[in-house]
Amino acid sequence: MARKGSKKQKDPEPVIEEEGDDDSSESVYDSGAEEYEIDEEEYDSDAQSDSDEEEESEDEEEFEDQGSDDDEDEVLERQIKAAREEDEDDSGDELEIIDDFENIPRSFSQTKGKRDKDGKVVTKDDEDGVINDPEVSKLMHTDDFSSDDEDAEGEGNRIGRVPLHWYDEYDHIGYDAHGKKVVKQSSKGAGGDLLDQALQNQDDLENKKYIVHDALNDKDVQLTERQLEIIRRVQAGAFAHPEFEAYPDHINYFSGVDQMDFGINGDRYEPKARFQPSKYEKAKVRQMLKKLESGAITMDYLTGKIRDMNDVRREKKEGEDDKPFMMWKGDEEDELHFRKGPMHIAAPKLPPPTHATSYNPPDEYLPTEEDLKEWEDMDVKDRPHGLLIPKKFKNLRSVGAYEHAVRERFERCLDLYLCPRVMKRRLNIDPESLVPSLPKASDLRPFPTSKCIEFDTPYDSDEAPMIRCLTVSPDGQFLASGASDGFVRIWEVQTGRLLRSWNLSKLVSTGEDNDDEAESTNAGPKAVVSLEWNPNRSHHCMLAAVGKCAVVIATGTGGTDDAELTEALLSSAAACSGDGSNVKNAKAKKAVIWKGFDNSSDSDPISAFGGRCGPIVALHTSKDVVSAKWHKKGDYFVTVSPKALSAAVLIHQLNKAASQQPFSKNKGGEVQRACFHPSKPFLFVATKEHIRVYHLVKQTMVRRLLSGCKWISSLDIHPSGDHIIVGSLDRKMVWFDLDLSATPYKTLRYHEKALRSVNFHPRYPLMASSSDDGTVHVFHSMVYSDLMRNPLVVPVKVLRGHSVVNKLGVIASIFHPTQPWLFSAGADGKIHLYQDI
Amino acid sequence: MSDSSVDIDGEQVRVSFILAKNQDRSLEVPSDPIAVPSSTRKKGLSAIINHLLDRRVDNKDGSDEDSDSDDEDKEPAIPFDFLVNHKLLRMSVEAMARREALSLEQAIEIEYFPAREAPEGEGESESQPDWISSLASTESFVVSGICDGSLRLFDQSDAFQQVGYVKAHAGPVQCVSSVEMDCSDKLLIASGSMDQTLLMHMVNKKNQINLHAVCSGGHMSSVSSTKLLSTGSGSASLASGDWDGGLCVWNVPTSSNESSESSSKKRKGVASQDVQEVTPQFFLKAHASNISGIVGAYQNSNVLLTSSWDHSIKSWDLESQNNILTLNGAKVATCIGRCHNSDVVATGHPDCTVRLWDMRSNTKNEGSLFDGSLRPSHKSWVSAVEWSPNDPFILASTSHDGTIKVWDIRSTVPLHTIKAHAKGSKALCLSFSKNAIYSGGSDCVVKRFRF
Questions:
Q1: Which terminus of chain B has a smaller tally of CB atoms within 10 A, N or C?
Q2: Quick one: where's region Disordered (chain A) (predicted)?
Q3: Residue at A822 is within a domain
Q4: ipTM above 0.90, yes or no
Q5: What is the pLDDT of residues B48-71, one digit of tens each?
């Protein structure tokens, strides 16, 4: 029942049993119009649309009806269901129920059938008017789809699919739906012999009656015209149902612009390309062949045995894991060389054309005759436009061929021929990123930043004496300065008050009266060039170098205990009379004469218990002394007089008033500076270009450090003893790490003029260099106890304030021993104390 | 009277004036809120108060006849200073209120009090032979230590004359301290010198300075600070610090005989009969470097506060000889001064700064540094700082730039700056007595500035 809606594709089920239905179907056709009217009223909600659609398109109408049919189907099914239940319950009413059962669907299906037929007829009429003939309509489908059951009455044989001969011996051929026996026709007496049958057949043939025997029901059935037609059609191999339209007209369901189905661009004619071999496919085949050759795909892949080549590869790869492989593959410098073929080297990029290369250059680009002459003499490379000579053309058309084309091409070829075929690998690294990030100066406090105290040197002459050297007492209370007027002055750091001063120049020159006096009197005062406070806190004395002498001065700052120690230290030196009896070393005896000062030169000691105060002893050497440095323990000291050849470096012991000459020969030029290692028995001796490190106990040279400087002017050892800084007159400051090589760890070029002094701070990680440009540069110089870490050197401050006099700036600088303060002394005669603010 | 300020255009804030505590009640004005222009500063407010008090106000433009006639019998105007939220008003009222996060909706409470007038230079000593390195003052005398090793005594009278002189030390005097002994009505002076000697002198009624005691056996380096502490009932103790960080406490011997007139001439003698030799009560290695200043703690004669070049301020219990509190700074402390009624101390530093420290120390970690409470204002090394003996908010500092600055700790900028010494000469010492500030320096003159 659900299949009844479709118009043309009717159910192909055989309608053999419905013999007498032709008439009814006829009537159905006739009464169709009226029935339709009624239906329309039934569904009056859709009335308007139905009436419209009736004229335009019957298909939509069909859909509408179907929708409403479903409701009826539901009702029907419910009723059937109810009926069956009743059937089971009550068999007494059997007949009535069956009647009902028969009637309800029949009446309904008739209406449906009529409607279907009606619609179909209308269309046929409208469209081609072929099947108006009742003869033809007999062939047409007349099934009213009343039931799937071929034997609705239940009178047919219902024995199922069992061999019929089982019933041969009975007078019935089986049972109907109601269980009654179906009596054999032949047994009723109709059964004639074969001859009768043959005659009957002949008659039938003549009467155009086609009878077939239904063995199951034991009935003769006359085939209807439709059934015959179907048989005929099946035999002919056509569609069985005559009402099936094999070639229906195309109905364009799509709205929108009607397709143009004519003209040359229509799809009526296939394009020519469709009849030619495909270029794409050809390319595809070629591609596959190439892949096949290279092994990217296999025949298995082409034939479809393998879905994905990646599977094969993966398998291969997994299999390869255990195989040996080139460990360093890809790490070679010139991996590129393993590539096939020559290296591609791109032609150099040509500069874009300029005005001069234009065919119509502005006049200023056109060369004058002089220019041309000039260019003639020049090499091609140096000419402003190379081979090209700017020329004006009337128009682009009149520009001829480029005359140098061949030459340029040849040169290019020559270039390519001669160019080395090695690809240079360039590291593409931003050089900025390689520079280590230095910490900010403000994070490295404290360091001296600003001037806070000025020590004013008194002077009589017009010019202030240059301050040549500075030293601070180990406790940081006193500052001593040596000036070019030959004075050594002691200052109080806290207030800047001048406490003591001694004219060493005068004392020394009076001492060496046996020398040629003329020279000493004419030459004016001798500058105090080097001054160092005794680093031992209980030895209250200092060492000055003035002229040809090194002078030991008692400062008189010690307390009662320290004063005794100092007294003991100085006593033997003070007793020296200058006869050289105290020096045992024969060589040193020639080089130096110890000569104590008498007590008349003494001044009041700063401390009430300070003992002697003033110059104690002078060590007269043959040449000018430029440096005198204490050993850390404050007993030994070393003096340097560069011009004295082999006696340039002398080591003295104050306690015993003894001297030694460690070198018998002068090696490597004039010695500039010398100083002791703070903890080990090493002596550093700086000549103009090198620094030699000597082991004093083993008496051997341990190292020679190459500074790279032309003239070393100053030297300082880091308190740890592992680092040396060297200042040079050629504006460099050089840092040596003794654990590293003999070449500088760092060379700092910050000053504009010669460096005069370099210093480490004894406690803070600070370092300073003073220069003739009038500045002092302060560096943060962190030395880590971790041997793997390199020292950190960061410039943190430039201290100004000294003026440059006679091309000399800051001559000396020294750090305060306990505070991050710096004293600087300049050629302008000023001493400044810079402190951290 | 406040109408004159109301009619000025611009924003206004409402303020109510309250007389500060311990001030003259006659200066009280009604505390009702008054609207004043928000940009009013100290001077404007001062004028308003003077108006309210019906005092003469200097009007530059107001030369009206009636006001002139009024002003004749009025009292002169007083400059006032104002406190907002216990801080001195040094900007416009509105800006101050915003800084202190006060609501402008309500009337701002402003305390006022007569402003402290700038000290006026009044009298200076005759030129001394050397730099004045230290000063100490008592009720009636000023003692100065001179770099030539002598001590000079000045009286505080108007004449400001030198009344006593003694050549005490061989080296420059580094520090002096003085205390008046109530029992004998005498002045005790302790002086330390760079030559490592520490001496005690007694001043008798005839203003003669006699050597009282020689402290020996304590210091092995320059005595850089000293402080006499009156322990009551006529006795005193002496604390002294040296350059190596050693701290000595000495007992001051009671004077045995009064007949010291004759011995004054023989002072240079090694040991006259009345001179006693004192050995230290105890010796402590208190600091790593120079002890630059010693003061006694407030209301506790057993506690000493010391400042040092090793960047620390420490307080010491003399009985147990223990360090009670250590406050570490970043800079050298060159001097120390304590507030007269609390344990807040001020230290001077070479980086031009005066810093305040809270040394109240019931438990160990209580002390703290009020950083940034006083801005760097000096141009050079701060050499001395002294607190006012009667005003807990006022202190004075002096510096190598030759100026004296008077500070109110309720403000970050100094109240007054006095150019005490000639340009180029350093001020080295300072003494704050009840009504005057004395300062000395490298120009070899003791100067007096009176309030």
A1: N
A2: 1-157
A3: yes
A4: no
A5: 888 888 887 665 444 444 444 455
